[in-house]
Amino acid sequence: MRHRLFTCILLIFAVSMTAWGQETANKKILKLRDKAKDAIAEKSYDKATQYLQKIMAIDPTYPDAYIMQGDVYNFTLKSEAAADNYNKAITLSKDPKPILYFITAEEELKCGRYESAYNHYTTYLDKSYGNTSLLQEVEKGMKTSKFGMEAVKHPVNFDPQNMGANINSEWDEYLAALTADESELIYTVRRPRDEKTICLFCVTEEDFYASNKVDGLWQPREALGSPVNSHYNEGAQCISPDGKYLFYTMCNTESGYGSCDLYWSKRIGNRWSRPRNFGPPVNTEHWESQPSIAPDGKTIYFASNRPGGHGGVDLWKTEMIAEGVFSVPENLGSVINTKEDDTAPFIHTDGRTLYFASDGHVGMGGKDLFYATLLNSGSWTEPKNLGYPINTAADEINILINAAGNTAYFSSDKDGGYGGLDLYYFTLDEQIRPTPVTYIKGHITDAATNEPLEAAIELFDLNENKTITSTTSDPITGEFLACILTGTNVLLNVNHPYYPFYSENFQLEKSSTELEPFIKDIALRRAEVGASFILRNIFFDFDKSDLKTESYVELNKLVDYLNKNQTVTIEIGGYTDNQGSDEYNKNLSLNRAKSVYNYLISKGIKADRLSYVGYGKEKPVAPNDTEEGRAANRRTEFTIKSY
Q1: Which domains does the chain have, with CATH numbers?
Q2: pTM value surpassing 0.85
């Protein structure tokens, strides 16, 4: 994009120079024309306009005056006025130079006049007989024009609503970040500098502000405060879906590695930790910015102009191997990245759908918003444009979408706001939505003392055999939040080194945005002789005792627990509902318990630490008069026999 702009600036001069010399006997016009030329060269655009208006008053049919006036508007980024004047010059010229058609098309493209731009690109090619060094620019412009014409004919739903005075102000508000439960919004505010602002040449300072949602309403915002907010510029942030980590960008700091670096901070209780630089190999002497964390709690996407990419700015990803330790970044590849700038990644909480801004993929002109889907193979689908009027001929630079996938947030300086950039939200058109995500939220405590616990929480997709989310409960409050992808069979596992693991199963067969979140407080019980623990993710086919492969994830957790607690011996108990005869239920439950026993032995657990029993319909944990109750009674447990 930068190269394209520089090329166009040179061409504007070329148009003016080749156009000057149009025949005129009026010496006054020639004198005024030379003065306007000098004023443009000196960037005195108001003065140049005065001279040009005088020329037009003398001879309103003199084409050079309109070309030069178009140049003035071009240099001052007034594309509509520039296009109007260039078009007037084309109409008045006897034989316009071919390059004038190209420049006119470029300005028309900037203001969304797609059909006229396409026609002028075509005329330019015809008049230059296809012999042009600008062929690549022309072809891209024609593709953009065709795309724009079609997109305008088929608009997507778009009705943005201002987020209101509790969020927005007379300053600039932008780059929103949202927790998965939509209870907290953190965003960047560009405010006037104060006496503590470190940046000497900056007239503003960027800080983080936050608002909490109470009874469906966003509360008055508050500055995030120290130590995250400093007197440098902080921005381009994301918050992990569970609200535990804040990843963001800070630029031109004394401790930085390059112009802009990535930083992270962790929330413990109600306080944020001291920010820490990602460090090498993520941060370099180049520009790293705009992080977005995936719901697995470890994959972080970001934008950088580091070497090894495909264009000016590319999208990359790194993994947080351990807290504060990051892997060597990996480029997202040529399907996502282009020769131009690809920026502002946002990975949705479904872990699959990536939204980003690009001026390299074909769109409406300028930077457009696109999305692509991560396939099970690890490759990306071809990016798709979000469509008009979300995208326009202007630059669209960022978007945030809630976990349910039905509401999007963005910033705009459109009329009717509170001043500068404001934050807006809108209902996302169904055809461009990600997979809906719901969440489980609650507290982890000790069952005996009710004290909060810091435990590891993992959600595992049993169908895809991969981790969806990894997080921890807060060490001070015990609070946790984890995303659950709809349309999946999910294992929830809670681990603490001093407690047997806890498991749960969620089978969300429908991809629905109307699913209620799961609110669940989990009390962990310490290992005691006689204590029983249900294995909720052990699966068998109807009337069968062979383990289904989806059971292996949970059984491997049990293997891990037994390996870490070598003195523990357990009994594996199989249970059924009350359907069928006592003998049938005893045999089925025994064979199922034996299958678990055999699996544990196959993984190296010694047989003398294990036993198995089939209890049939004994010891029900729920009434057998409903399907839900019978399902609860069909279970596998392990009981501590010695510790």
Answers
A1: 2-153 (1.25.40.10), 161-432 (2.120.10.30), 436-526 (2.60.40.1120), 527-643 (3.30.1330.60)
A2: yes
